[in-house]
Structures are given as C-alpha cells and as structure tokens.
Amino acid sequence: MMACSRTWRNTIGFEKAALKVRAYHGVEGAFSIRACYGCIDPDCARACPTGALTPRKGGGVQLDESLCIHCGLCIEACAPSALQWDFSTRIPLPCRHCGVCVSFCPNHVLEMMEVDQR
Ligand code: SF4
Ligand code: SF4
User: Fold this and answer.
1) Cα 25 from chain centroid?
2) Ligand nearest to the CA of 9
3) Ligand 2 proximal residues by C-beta, below 6 Å
4) Burial profile 70-90: b = 16 or more Cβ within 10 angstroms, e = fewer
C-alpha cells in the first residue's frame, strides 16, 4: 500500500493506495487483500454516470478526474470491494496494474498474472 501511494500519489499513506490490506479482527496473523481484478467489462465503469471511469485496454479501468462528480457509485458496484476510495478528495483510486506493489511484497503474496475472462 505504501509503495502504491508513493508511486502514484506522491505520498506515503494507506489511504491513497489502490489496494487494501485488512486484518481480521480477533484472529492473529489473518489478513485479506483487496486488489483490482482487472475486469474486461468492469462493473465500476458501467456504474459511472459521467464517463469518468472507463474500461482500460487489456482490463481494469482508467479515471478522468475532471469528469468525476464524487457520487461513489463505482465503489458500490465493485463486487469484490477492490476499487478503493480516496476519502479526502472523494474520488476512486483505480489500479494501474504497474506491478510496483508486487515487487515490494517480501513474502511473494502478490503476483501479476493474465487470466482468461471469456
Ligand atoms: S465517483 Fe466519480 S468515477 Fe465513481 S461513479 Fe461517481 S462519477 Fe464515476
Ligand atoms: S499494481 Fe500499481 S497501481 Fe495497482 S495496486 Fe499495485 S502499485 Fe498500485
């Protein structure tokens, strides 16, 4: 999360990352990771009423911040809760699929892979 926010938002902070690591309360050492699946036909983009969020070639989405009206419908539409929200600017934080977070994970939990979504 820190590698992502530093790379793309020029700040080091959990709240600006395009992926999220959550701890399971009450279970020591148990975490879940929410990262973009790179959908070919993304629900988040279909839910966007202004065209701010659009499908990206090869999967995932891209954001035109100038068109965003901060409605949050894209966040609600993402079934795996992978699309993250910037609470200070009230815009989504779409993943760029750059792989930086993968290279910073010391335990090789994250991996970039191509999946057949047909
Ligand atoms: S918050 Fe912005 S990007 Fe998300 S659905 Fe609303 S207008 Fe589209
Ligand atoms: S692939 Fe890049 S943009 Fe996506 S979560 Fe990892 S560091 Fe952030």
Assistant:
1) 22
2) 2
3) 3-4, 7-8, 18-19, 35, 95-101
4) eeeebbebbeeebbbbbeeee
Mean pLDDT by 10 residues, the chain (118 residues): 96 93 86 93 97 95 98 97 96 96 94 82
Handedness of CA 73, 77, 80, 83 (dihedral sign): negative
The CATH class that applies to domain 2-104 reads alpha beta
Residue 15: how many CB atoms within 10 A of its CB?
A: 15
Helices (H), the chain: 2-9, 43-47, 73-77, 100-104
Give me the residues paired with residue 10 across strands: none
CB-CB contact of 94 with 18 (8 Å): yes
Per-domain residue ranges of the chain? 2-104
Separation of CA 84 and ligand 1 centre (Å): 12
Residue 81 is encoded by which pair of tokens?
């809760």
> Encoding tokens for residue 116?
């057949």
